[in-house]
Fold:
Amino acid sequence: MRLPRGSHPLGGGALIALVSLVPPVRHALEASMTAQMLVQIPLLIGAGCLLAPVVPTRVPARIHAWNQGGVAGLILATLVATFWMLPRSLDASISHPLMAAAKHLSVPLLIGLPFALSWPKMGFVVRGVLLAEVVATFFRLGWLYWVSPIRLCNNYGLDDQRRLGAYMLVLGGGLLAWLGWKLLMGRFDSGAPSPGSLPPATDHWEWTPAELSPEAASAYEDARLRGLCHEGALEAALGAAQRLPIPTASHPPPALSRPAGARVPSASRSGK
Amino acid sequence: MSALRTAVLSVALLVAGGEGIAIATDGFRAFTTETARRLAVRRRPVGLPAVPLENQSGVAFTVDDLRGRWVLVDFIYTRCLTMCAVLGGDFSQLERQLAEPIARGRLQLLSVSFDPAHDAPADLASYLTRFRGHGPGWEAARPVAEEGLKQITTAFGITVIPDQLGGYTHNAAIHLVDPAGRLVDIYDVGQVELVTRSVLDRLTP
Structure:
């Protein structure tokens, strides 16, 4: 969820959703089933993801108590995505202006945004299940579109539907290959580490906020809610802990509760 | 505590979402617009607008003039070589199988062109000839105005999209209109036996 410096995520997200509503653009994006499902809807989801970093910090903090491990957010995003995968929803979003408005609002706000807020909280298992399910959905729908002799959308032709099916099978295959690669390489993370972050590690989730001092833990939590990956948040938390006033007898050091040498997690692994 | 709240919210979302999807799919029965259109018509018949039409002989009439009879309606364009040919075959069969109610004036077959720019009365007449349709039991007609075309396709739920070959792709079906001028049922192309039985059932008091 890291953005290039100087970009305005709110503006970017809203802009994508609005531009997609401009009649010629909308017409182009909805001219084929392939474009609507593989370009327009992903773009709108992306627009929602771009909104995540600009949500005021206290909002995700409040939601957090109801969204442990990102599960509730994932369920919301999945259900709304299911609705927009129904052929009749795609048809209706072309024919009925109200459904078009519903699509342009709900796809960013109820799929992209909750997904972006929940993904950093998801554990390995939840992410794995989600990704496996995404791959399976691409294969299931791709196969259905590829072989179905019946047009599923009244607004789209059979050729278009078959082409979409083929693309989805290819995309599902690509995603599966990428997942397999990630698993084989032993790393499974939300993003590439940025320069200056902790070195890649296979056991980087060994470090949990529980091992941090309360101040560092809360800084860690804030950073995660802002959308940083685990390492990024850990780094931010350690940085924040260092900036706190010098400890006194009544205030124990706000650093890590781990014993000496625990400034970076790699130190604890050096003996391995 | 957080885990419990998350579990409660997740279950609530699943229940609400499941309910939402159930409503959106007519109880998991209609995933496509075409199925939804058929279920909706059966549940609530659709009143048809009095669209002005012109038949294969150039005679003007409106949809309202058909009241008092049951009408089987399909939508075609005469250049069509695929779906409309199948529909033409179906109607040709229906005209023979339902000859008796047609002869007694209780049933009418009507093919409506959604391509009025190309389908002049002469084209409609040759379309009927192609399928050995003999008036007045089976008529072909075109809307006389662009507005009428839009009205009638909207009322019936027909979506027409241009294809790459200069023709059209359209949802093809056999529509049943009751004597009160309401669309009451929609059948698949090829369901000639079902349509025959259904019409005869409705005609028998």
